[in-house]
Amino acid sequence: MPEYRLTNEEISTMVDTSDEWIMQRIGIKERRIMKEEGKATSDMGAEAVKELLKKTNTRAEEVDLLICATITPDMNFPATANIIAHKVGIHNAWSYDLNAACSGFIFTLVTAAQFIESGRYRKVIVVGADMMSSITNYKDRNTCALFGDAGTAVMLEPTIEEAGVMDYIHHVDGLGRHHLHMKAGGSLKPASCETVENQEHFVYQEGQTVFKAAVSGMADVAAEIMKRHKLKADDVAWLVPHQANLRIIDATARRMGVSKDKVMINIEKYGNTTAATIPLCLYDFEKQLKKGDNIILAAFGAGFTWGSVYLKWAYNTV
To answer: What angle do the packed helices 41-55 and 80-88 form, to 10 degrees?
Structure first.
């Protein structure tokens, strides 16, 4: 995570808002922002991968595949995953990016699991990284308080135990593109002097529409995967929801019947880091996790994309 903390007090000097309003409506106190010149999403992702390799005592040449979930790539091409692999010395693997916005981590996690389950690969790294400050308009009161920057990484390996990614339910609805997107910069509307002047290279969001869709989408799919596996609220050790809005998180927990003490929440410290929110929660709460814990991951993102993952934690932490 970047060191710089952008507080609600500082945001209130940019737009007409206040700490009280942001905390009440969203639940964010501060967010980390990448301020260093010449730094980008790949730098945060690379630092996370370096920590992961050290933590798991893995050599870079042992990695078979690296997939990066991001909507803020260093550049349109090549893939940010390729840049991360180069920066950390992963030369024997192939890599690519996956774009599913705030659902990016769970979509990528499930994708990576297929490569492990195929039997062809033994070590696959999933990176969730976004430098959302690069596409946030700090003159837009509706969005400037929402986002932060972070890079995260997890490793998947084969096991003969009943652990890891047990099941998933994912959905998309392309109609949602009208309500949450970046207007310019793609092939539909390439960058021009006009698009820059009109500030069309920032996140555009219709808040109420997205909020309603996120509440129903995340809550329903999390409850659905519990029902599929006959999991009662008592059987679930943790709900790990995408950290976009505290009210959406609360609604998802209520729909599942899970008490708040079983919900991982760190939105107050980091804001919405899109593809990084769920693994960032796992990082913060790792010491509380036990082998065999039933964990439900749930997310909703632009596109629209949404889904849930039933994860059984694979190791004890010290």
So the answer is: 50
Cis previous bond, 158, omega within 30: no
Question: Sign of torsion, CA 247 248 254 259?
Answer: negative
Task: Find, among 278, 279, 275, the residue nearest to 130 by Cα.
Answer: 275
* Res 317: pLDDT: 83
- Domains along the chain with CATH numbers: 4-162 (3.40.47.10), 165-312 (3.40.47.10)
**pLDDT digit string, tens, across residues 187-237:** 999 999 999 999 999 999 998 999 999 999 999 999 999 999 999 999 999
pLDDT at residue 318 greater than cutoff 90? no
Tens-digit pLDDT profile for residues 98-111: 999 999 999 999 99
Of 68, 144, 242, 281, which is the active-site residue?
242
For the question of residue 272 being annotated catalytic, the response is yes
Alpha-carbon distance 102 to 162, whole Å? 28
Compute CA 248 distance to the chain's CA centroid, rounded to the nearest angstrom.
15
Show the CA angle centred on residue 72, arms to residues 40 and 279, nearest 5°.
90
Report the distance separating Cα 67 and Cα 156, nearest Å: 11
> Is there a catalytic annotation at residue 178?
no
Catalytic residue among 68, 102, 144, 281: 102
Element (H, E) at 300: strand 294-301
Copy the structure tokens of residue 19.
Answer: 């700490």
Question: Helix, strand, coil % (nearest 5) of the chain?
Answer: 40, 25, 35
DSSP annotation string for 44-112: HHHHHHHHHHHHTT--GGG--EEEEE-SS-SSSSS-HHHHHHHHHT--SSEEEEE--GGGHHHHHHHHH
* DSSP symbol at 176: G
